Amino acid sequence: MAKTDKSTASTGKGLGAKLMGMTDTNLLLTITIAVFFLMYIGAIIFQGSGFLKPQTFFNILNANAALIILACGMSLVMITGGIDISVGGVTALVSMCCAVYLDYKGGNVFMAVIIALAIGLAFGAFQGFLVAYLDIQPFIVTLAGMFFARGMTTIVNTSPFNVENEAFVALKMTRVNVPGMGSVNKIGKYVPAYVEIGVLVALLVVIVMFVMLRWAKVGRNFYAVGGNRQSALMLGINVKRTKFLSHLICGLLAGIGGFVYFLHVGSGSPSHATGAEMDAIASSIIGGTMLTGGVGNVIGTFFGVLSLSTIQNIVSSAGFDQAWWSGITRAAMLCLFLVIQSVVMSVRKKRNSAN
Amino acid sequence: MANSENARISSAGSLKNLIKNQCFIPIAALLLLAVFNLIADPSFFKITLGYNSTGNPVLSGFLIDILNNGSELAILAIGMTLVTAASGGQDISVGAAIAIAGSVVLRVLCGRDTRPETLQAPIIVAFLVACVVAMLFGAFNGVLVAYFKIQPMIATLILYTAGRSIAAWINNNELPVISDPKFAYFGGFIPGIPIPTPVFIAIACMIVIGIVLKVTNLRLYTQAVGINQSSSKLNGLNPELIKVMAFVILGLCVAVVGLIKVSRISSINYSVIAKDIEMDAILAVALGGNALSGGKFNMAASIIGAYVIQCLTTTLYKFGVPANSLPAYKAVVVILLVVVSAPTVREYVSTLTKKLKLSKEVA
Asked: What is B205-257 written as a DSSP string?
């Protein structure tokens, strides 16, 4: 990791020095994972046995599979120094288009997947072109993308409806049992723990992205461009193409995530995935992706999503089940991690310049 | 910027001066929309004087609609322009902040009862409390941006996520309704005056900001910080403070808009009030030709930009576009706008015209 991170030099000794010696990516990743485990253990201690059941954990995964995929794409764009807030809109558009195609047009599931990917790729390619080659601020471009996708969703179909296509419902109901994780319910029957197909897709995406970012040359380019655009250019990296690629992949992942979301909810609605882009950004930030670019890790993003939904579970099971607490908790958590990032980085900067 | 300057210099004569003016693009867009409406349906410009249910004279028509509904946007554009200029980013939490401000106004007016017969506090007190709350939230955003050095859009994302929840929390998720007709004056009509009150409020805000920019150093300082933060610091300014101040001023604008918004319906809907208004406000600033990356700004152009957006919205409504699909059309306009104003595209166009000229001279 040391190749592209900005601050690697540290000469101190001891635990503090060890922490300071870590690369930015690893330090923030460590904080995130530690926070997640502390939170989960805290939940088990204070909220009782509900959190002890493996299925509780798997339910968090089931509900957030789409968000994990979206957040992975978001992290990639943020590592490259950009941002993409169109992912929530694209998710809604994908679910609506697939729903209309499956139910009204009587299409098959395979073609629906192709449609989902095509929509995602189209958004990624167009936004990527505007950002990378025309040098327009990514925030403005993707804000427009988000509004376009949201508007298009209602143009495709205004009212929400459930999909009743048989092949699709069969796929939606498919459950993958996790061996050895089941529990015995009240009447003494063994209930196996399960995950949905979307979770497998999400895990696959996380692994592929992790491998690409860690070892593939193209993956290292993302860090280089995000870390310092000028020096990346001098290293002979095609900065524009890298930026374009990051948006393209993010768009593709938004398409995949959109379909996984669709698979989870099984309906099309203009109000689907409201605020998903904000959740994805928050998860990435909590997962240790720096807004300034060049620092981040999809494993962290994965734990970011888990932390975000765990805290929501904790808050709602602690009795604060009114709708507004969820928004306030998420915002508070985002705020906390942003401030941690900011403080950690400024301390390190001072140390580094002192050395 | 240098490229656009070159392009400006190379264009000719009086046309050059006209185009050079920053107000040119928004005014041209406004004229374009006006001509379009004139051709499509001249009744767009009809203004009628009628009487409302209480027997007071009111003006109605699409033009009045634009002026009336554009007021909120114009007021917001004032604050957003300052924030954009000082911090080089935009505040995306204004919609949520308006919900909070509106909620506070209602909370103070209603007291414990959600449907009071009489107001529990003077309206001015409710407004002032809302101002303080909105400015505090503005300061919160500003501190995150200025002192913690978080990108403005991400810092304001926090309030964007939490804002509507906080607004619902302030009123215990109940929907207070104010029955006092005096409260409806701010968003409707004052008896005897046929022009909607928000128009006067917007004009008052414009006059205030005009005087402030003329008399104080606000413009100079904001631009200095936006253009180069470290050099403004070397010149003895306090860039952090100025950034926070820009956000606080935006907070004040938000409070005014919040008052108008809740006054319009004498109630509040937490998830719908001022929805997507942040997009329109940013668009107004961009349409006014202000660089979204900060620095120099032109307040008048932003305000005209706000009315252009409202004109576009009203036109789309008139042609039967449903409210929910409106964003799709606006997004197309934004994309066209940013593509046309992108430096790379401008450069490309100017080299193309130069080449054309050269080939003409050679021939």
From this structure: HHHHHHHHHHHSSHHHHHHHHHH-HHHHHHTT--HHHHHHHHHHHHHHHHHHH
pLDDT digits (tens, 9 = 90+) for A261-282: 999 988 888 888 887 888 898 8
Question: Nearest chain A Cα to B275, which residue?
Answer: A147
How far does the CA of residue A202 sit from the closest CA of chain B (Å)?
Answer: 25
For residue A93 the two structure tokens come to: 């558009």
N-to-C CA span, chain B = 32
Q: Which two tokens stand for residue B89?
A: 């980013």
Tokens representing residue A322 in the block: 């009114």
Comparing CB atoms, the residue among B151, B164, B338 nearest residue A140 is: B338
Instruction: Find, among A75, A122, A85, A121, the residue nearest to A222 by Cα.
Output: A75
For residues A220 and A152, what is the distance between their CA atoms, to the nearest angstrom? Answer: 36
- Domain assignment present for residue A317? The answer is yes
On whether residue A348 sits in a domain, the answer given is: no
pLDDT single digits (tens) B140-156: 999 999 988 888 888 88
Sequence letter at residue A194: Y
Chain B positions touching A159 (Cβ under 8 A) are none
Query: Where does B2-328 sit in CATH, by number?
Result: 1.10.3470
Q: Is residue A326 part of a domain?
A: yes
- Go through A106-124 and write b for each residue having 16 or more CB atoms within 10 A of its CB, e for each that does not: ebebeebbebbbebbbebb
- The full DSSP string for B154-217 is HHHHHHHHHHHHHHHHHTTT-------GGGGGTTS--TT--S-HHHHHHHHHHHHHHHHHHHSS
Q: In angstroms, what separates the C-alpha of B216 from chain A's closest C-alpha?
A: 31
Cα A240 to Cα A80, A129, A150, B83, B333, distances in angstroms:
11, 9, 28, 29, 25
- Chain B residues whose CB is inside 8 A of the A270 CB are 324
Domain membership flag for residue A351: no
Q: What is the pLDDT of residues A81-114, one digit of tens each?
A: 888 989 999 999 999 999 999 888 877 888 999 9
Considering only CA atoms, give the Rg of chain A.
Answer: 21
Domain count, chain A: 1
Is A335–B327 a contact, with Cβ atoms under 8 angstroms apart? no
Chain A interface, mutation test: which of B100, B158, B161, most A Cβ atoms within 10 Å? B161
CATH at residue A267 = 1.10.3470
Contact criterion met (CB below 8 Å) for B263 and B185: yes
Angle between helices B326-341 and A109-132 (to 10 degrees): 30
ipTM of the predicted assembly exceeds 0.85: no
Residue range(s) defining the domain that contains residue A84: 25-342
Nearest to A327 among B164, B343, B345 (CB): B164
